Amino acid sequence: MARTIYVDADACPVKEEVYKVARRHRWQVKVVANAFIRTPPDVQLTVVDSGPDIADDWIAERAGPGDIVVTNDIPLAGRALKAGAAALAATGKPFTQSSIGAALAQRELMEHLRSFGEMTGGPKPFSQADRSRFLSALDAAIHKAART
Asked: pTM of the entire structure?
């Protein structure tokens, strides 16, 4: 059975890392984006229409047990977990059944504050430590999936 890593590619800073790790473990990679992006020949690119959640819907409809979804989108991570897939943020933080509820609640709170004009700031700049943490977490997720 081919295992797949689905990449929510828009604004994903770790695509090259995904390709490298997937090749090493012989996993297939499916990159989903709202516009054409350059991918290696061994990576499947799917370009979906622009619009809210279209790429997320495409991934959520296909990801399942044994797959990994790489995304910073918390609702998509929740949908992936519900389908039995693993979900991993670009910083290497794994989303889990026990953490997804709190992450969704915090996301809702931040959106609420922004709607009132509160300056909540964006994510901190992506660092080399985040990249390294992601590589380790992706490797661990692949090994965990192989055991199931």
From this structure: 0.84
